[in-house]
Amino acid sequence: MVSLRDLLRLASRTFAIGIEQLPAVLCDAGTVAYLLLRVSDYLEDNEEMPSEKKIELLNLWAEVLNGSVNVHELTNRIQVADTSNPDAVVAQHAEDILARLALLPKEVREIITPHVIHSTQGMARWVARGPQVNDEADMDDYMFEVAGRVGYLLTHLFAWYSLFIRFRIKELLPLAREFGLALQTVNVIRGLRKDYERGWVYIPKKFLEAVNLSAHELFLPENRAEAIKVLDMLADKAERHLHAALTCVKTLPRWQHRIRLACIFPLMFAIRTLAISRRNTDVFNSEAKMTREEVKRIVRDATLWGWSNRWLDSYSRELNVVVKE
């Protein structure tokens, strides 16, 4: 059986840093959940598949997850996938991931499986709908399916593990949804160009209409002034979600340091990425990224001080200010 840790690191070194901080069975559960969702992502984002096939395979994957179809029905149909794509490699190992899922406690399986199914079905719905993001509510609906549900999944896993979190779950769930939307909004900003090149623009049409641009015109060099205004709208939206995400992290118990770290890392990465992207015309040409040194510094600093809510407030401001000065 392939090592799921190796698959996790192959799929995303950034998310692996956080997931591998989780204690005991939560680490295994987080790894399995993340990889299952990457199978869904591969089917949704595949640039070589027509929409009809994506929808068919996403629905097939949902049936595999609920146990009504053998996983080979899916893996046999994607064996020719490009193995230079990490998500394709993950998808081809779906049987191994499901085998590891089966070894998790029953209560954990009952948390992971429904959330992944619902997210997968939501992706299929959006593929069928096509790249039509009319307003902010549409954008939030899409982002909830691909990221907000992940916030719910993780919060329920944390609540299963921690009695304190279980007592505060009603307070945490809305914040967890915002956390997911925060990361996905930053992801939309970071991947503006790449998404545009594959035919998808997740920017609400109302944002574009406010500056009298079409999605295509947004990426033309002569329209940079108007494009920056649209970028500002997206960045402001991201900051609102990130503020709620920070509240979510600060609500987690300080003594559950490893659970907090698993949330702090992606949050601080997102804050830093947004700071790099804000009012940066380069995002219309290429992907905005942190440097490896910045990633290492965030991991080091958060590991030392992530138990402190006061430090989280201060550090989040610092990550924003550094780029804006």
Word description of this protein:
The protein has 325 residues and is mainly α. The chain folds into two domains: 1-129, Farnesyl Diphosphate Synthase; 131-325, Farnesyl Diphosphate Synthase (Orthogonal Bundle), CATH 1.10.600. Helices cover 75% and strands 0% of the residues. It is globular. The termini are far apart.
Biggest sheet features: none
Structural domain tally: 2
Low-confidence stretches: none
Estimate the mean pLDDT confidence.
Answer: 93
Q: Gap between N and C termini, in Å?
A: 50 Å
Keywords:
mainly alpha, about 325 residues, Farnesyl Diphosphate Synthase, globular
Write a concise synopsis of the structure shown:
This protein has helices at residues 4-11, 13-19, 24-45, 51-65, 72-75, 86-92, 94-102, 106-129, 136-161, 163-167, 169-190, 192-197, 205-209, 215-218, 224-251, 257-277, 292-305, 309-324. By secondary structure, the protein is mainly α. The chain is globular, with a radius of gyration of 19 Å.
Secondary structure: elements and pairs:
Layout: H1 4-11, H2 13-19, H3 24-45, H4 51-65, H5 72-75, H6 86-92, H7 94-102, H8 106-129, H9 136-161, H10 163-167, H11 169-190, H12 192-197, H13 205-209, H14 215-218, H15 224-251, H16 257-277, H17 292-305, H18 309-324
Helix pairs in contact: 1-2, 1-3, 1-6, 2-16, 3-4, 3-6, 3-7, 3-8, 3-9, 4-8, 8-9, 9-11, 11-15, 11-16, 15-16, 16-17, 16-18
